[in-house]
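# nightly structure sweep
# worker-07 picked up a monomer target from the shared queue
# config: single-sequence mode, recycle default, output format = structure tokens
# input follows
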Amino acid sequence: MNRLKEKYNKEIVVQLKKELNIKNVLALPHLEKIVINVGIGKKIIQDQQFKEVVTKTLERITGQHPILTLAKKSISNFKIRQGMVVGAKVTLRGERMYDFLDKLINVALPRVRDFRGIEEKSIDKNGNLNIGFPEYLVFPEIRSDEVEKLHGLEVTIVLNNANKQSGRILLEKIGILFKKK
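# output follows
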């Protein structure tokens, strides 16, 4: 069992029960999934190889093959036609989710330049956390000398049974740092 999952089951559940005053374990907020998303958009029109670069990058970071997302409707100003590839995403659940979250907290976020914590406004009303990375070099699987083209990516941590306050409490207990007010 992953050390983060073990910590959640043994320590965090007990602390959340006391802090949120909830007796039923199933009513506590918990991690549902993590979604890693890369928007390709206009770049694919200029460079057809970009889709392969994004796919390989997501595979190396997550250990899972990404799904290519398609445009739902045409937008002439962006030269996008219905059915074109406009992004790629990976959904992680179970052990892979906990492994990725452990890597994100302990390796990737500390490697971000001038990291002082995550803004509280990154948490939505359902307690989900959205983190954007302008470049993917902070992940240990990527070596900077192998990089062909840089792109950003977005990580969404989806919680279940949470609101903004209880979501923040859970995320802090897991180990995510937030900016001090």
